[in-house]
Design a protein that fits this description.
Strand content: 15-25%
Number of helices: 13
Largest sheet: 7 strands, mixed
CATH class of the largest domain: Alpha Beta
Length: about 400
């Protein structure tokens, strides 16, 4: 799951609504999103139907003209304000939602037209780089609040040799979706002495948690309102930070998707262009707005950025790949004859047997071998799946 985060009034709910077409309250005032919204967005990937020259019958996903759209979950967390970790605004409630996310899309008002509290201000008056630093601080200090009560005891226990620090932290932070590998990497990067944690200073602990945050909750920046001056200048400055930065116009994407939903235009999420399907049914205002989107957003930046942000979050931050399990390796179909019915988004490094478990527990338990479709070769349980692999799993209890 990926969380859509940021301060109030940056276009966060607009981004979420454009990505999912879930109707959420959108307003130019702080805390429009009181409760987190959840919805289904899609990762866009070239479908393999054209490569294999087959007519597919998608079940768990969509295929639009050779583009496979694989469903993923987004959560729209309500806006954070500085001091949220201390309970300001609706702070702790929102930070509690962030813990469920595997990665974060940080919606930043690149035009600088909202202050640190999310209130409207003079265009360009606020530095969007401050918003990036503030969000980092809020999450890190929230983690510190969670750990600080237990830290002295954890440190002493680790030094006594009863249990290692890695295991103690894994147990304490497991509810925040932090894994052992995340903690190990944070210890390695900070080069702190895991055998003498009582020697860590308060600053050492904060540095460790800040590093852990960046590893366990990877984040990209969606530089929103890119069509408003001076957003482009700020975009270049944001790119100097240690993040992937995507120029974005959530309002344009929402307009395009709503027009496509009404079949007024031919547009797929992430396209660099669109065609008017029913120009006679558009008002002059609508036609003008769409022309502006085409000229100032699509032609200039290549897309509205919303779909790009979703793809980058799942495929690059979370390092996931798309695989196609089938039952009949010759027809590329399931037991009902549906061709390429399912596309699964799985982490890079997933093995054939792990895929079997993802599909069904019994399939994993009774796994014998698998067959890779392109070379028609048998592969073992430890075969590491590649992006766009087509796999048939053979088991004692055969399932597709």
């Amino acid at each position: 799951m990926v969380g859509v985060v940021g301060k109030p009034n940056t276009g966060k709910s607009t981004f979420f609504s454009a990505a999912t077409l879930v109707p959420v309250e959108i307003g130019s005032y702080p805390f429009t999103t009181i409760k987190p919204n959840r919805g289904i967005a899609y990762v866009r990937s070239p479908c393999i139907c054209k490569e294999f020259d087959v007519q597919d019958s998608p079940v768990n996903s969509l295929c639009l003209d050779g583009i496979r759209l694989v469903p993923v979950e987004l959560i729209d967390c309500a806006g954070l304000v500085p001091g949220a970790w201390q309970g300001r605004g609706l702070g702790n409630q929102f930070l509690d939602e962030i813990r469920k996310a595997d990665a974060l899309i940080h919606i930043v008002d690149a035009s600088g037209a909202t202050d640190s509290e999310g209130k409207l201000c003079k265009l360009g008056a606020h530095d969007p780089l401050e918003d990036v630093r503030f969000l980092e601080t809020e999450i890190t200090m929230w983690l510190a609040q969670i750990l600080k009560k237990d830290w002295p005891k954890l440190a002493r226990t680790a030094e006594s040799g009863k249990e290692d620090l890695l295991s103690l932290l894994e147990e304490r932070l497991s509810g925040l979706a932090f894994r052992r590998a995340h903690i190990f990497e944070a210890l390695r990067k900070t080069e702190l002495n895991a055998e003498k944690p009582t020697s860590w200073s308060k600053e050492d602990l904060i540095r460790f948690l800040d590093t852990l945050r960046s590893i366990a909750k990877p984040m990209l920046i969606a530089a929103n309102k890119i069509d408003v001056d001076p957003a482009e200048q700020n975009l270049e400055r944001l790119k100097n930070l240690d993040y992937l930065v995507i120029p974005c116009c959530a309002e344009a994407e929402l307009a395009l998707r709503r027009a496509a939903e009404k079949k007024l235009i031919d547009y797929r999420p992430g396209d660099c262009n669109f065609n008017m399907s029913k120009p006679d049914e558009l008002t002059e205002t609508q036609s003008k707005a769409l022309r502006v989107v085409k000229e100032k957003i699509l032609r200039k930046f290549g897309s509205t950025g919303v779909q790009d942000a979703i793809n980058v979050a799942f495929l690059r931050l979370l390092n996931m790949i798309v695989v196609y399990p089938v039952e009949d390796i010759e027809r590329l179909s399931d037991h009902q004859g549906r061709v390429l019915p399912d596309a699964y988004l799985v982490p890079y490094g997933t093995t054939a047997r792990q895929l079997a478990y993802i599909i069904h527990t019994e399939l994993g338990e009774s796994f014998i071998y698998a067959v890779e479709a392109r070379e028609k070769k048998r592969i073992g349980e430890n075969y590491m799946l590649k992006d766009r692999d087509v796999i048939s799993i053979v088991s004692a209890k055969k399932r597709g």
